[in-house]
Prior knowledge:
The protein has helices at residues 24-38, 63-82, 93-98, 121-130, 177-180, 189-203, 225-235, 254-261, 278-284, 290-303, 322-335, 352-356, 363-386, 428-431; strands spanning 15-20, 43-44, 53-58, 87-92, 111-113, 136-138, 154-156, 159-163, 165-166, 185-186, 207-211, 219-220, 223-224, 240-244, 268-270, 308-315, 339-344, 392-400, 407-411, 417-421, 435-443, 448-455. It is an alpha/beta fold. The strands form six sheets. It has a six-stranded parallel beta sheet, sandwiched between helices. It has a five-stranded mixed beta barrel with strand order 18-19-20-22-21. A four-stranded mixed beta sheet has the order 7-8-11-14, with helices on both faces.
Amino acid sequence: MKPLHAEKPAAAALSLYVETYGCQMNEYDSGLVCSILGEEGFDSVPTPEQAGVILLNTCAIREKAHEKVFNRLSALAHLKRRNPGTVIGVLGCMAQNLGDDLFAMGLPVDFMLGPDNYRELPRVIQNIRSGAEAGISITQLSRSETYADLAPRVVSGCLAFVTIMRGCDNFCSFCVVPYTRGRERSRSVESIVSEVNDLVESAGVKEVTLLGQNVNSFRFEGLYFVDLIRSILRETSIERIRFTSPHPHDFPEELMELMAAEPRFCSHVHLPLQSGSSAVLERMRRDYTREDYLRLLRTMRNMVPDLGVSTDIIVGFCGESEAEFEETLSLVEEARYDMAFMFRYSERELTYARKNLPDDVAEPVKLQRLERLIEVQTRISQAKNADLVGKSYAVLVEGRSRRSALELMSRTASNKVVIFPVPEGESPEACMGRTFEVVITGSSAATLRGELRQPVGAARD
Ligand code: 5AD
Ligand code: SF4
């Protein structure tokens, strides 16, 4: 939709530009922010130059995330010089984490709000504009705020995200999330089901990803995560459900039974490993050993045929020896993940590790370990994808291929990306959000190529 205020400079005060850093939960939170300010008459604009209010929704999880935001704020300083009425706010984990320290850095920031304080936005913007307040920082964590009454419709084509719980009580020793997002709290099953129904009925969404820092801790009035999935399956007509992320230490196996039985519940699990060494896992306060993790993975794969598995891994954590790192390499060889997000450890404010464990693996060693790990995982991804050539899958079309207008980008239930040609007699637009049966004809480490076998459920609505 074309923003109205592009032609109406008088409305610039009510024009909003939000930039999102970090995880999918932040994407969702930016949607919350847009709906809170939308109620006040704000409209989104595509560039900061057009906006009266610029918001950066930030992430604090790793070093690079911080740096990116500092650089971006410096780059936005000229807009404030040109128009001092422009309001710039920093939201999210970095605001929560740095608080007033950010004001001391000489960056063009009028206010900061932590993840539990977004309802304050209209008042804060108004007070800054009226001159009643300056340099506002509100970073009060809440035990109950879930924004359950807001339905932000965070939709990208036929896909959408829904946050089902906020915060984390796990306190892994490397992780800042419990300090920036606060304690665990879950939304009501009813509000989640109604949000999914709204996404299906009003926005044509086919696939929803349920988000939480630790979805196995979902609890609402005696109901567990698996009960939530059952309710969504029963009470909505969403075609596909995904979720991220669970924690390996209290993983509900019942969930895998449901996944095996129910084709709408996609056969993919993102199961963060962090390290393949039990000693490192203990220092990380992860509450499981290498053996526990491998046992869980075996059980899952036995229960769900064709299960896609991805993970997160950190290298160079405090005290990680060469032998401990090699345990991570050997676990990765054994686990044969489809995909992995791999990071080098960066010390974070407030965490147990920062306070108690020396960050003593040299930076070049961290980098070298990361490269070695990426090399192993890339080889495994390649080999696993090559094994799929000749097999058939039902794939949901998400968009056009980035490389060619004549090809479509789709995904299997197990979360593999499949590129295939626009079927004859169809336009790419008409294929969006539809499911097709494809046979895999080629592969690389990141994607599969396919050819159409036959459309599944050819009816378009
Ligand atoms: N350093 C490096 N990686 C981290 N992660 C979380 N905290 C840190 C840190 N301090 C990674 C973990 C987590 C993912 C979201 O980010 O692997 O699962
Ligand atoms: Fe961070 Fe651990 Fe919570 Fe994940 S489970 S958000 S790594 S503290």
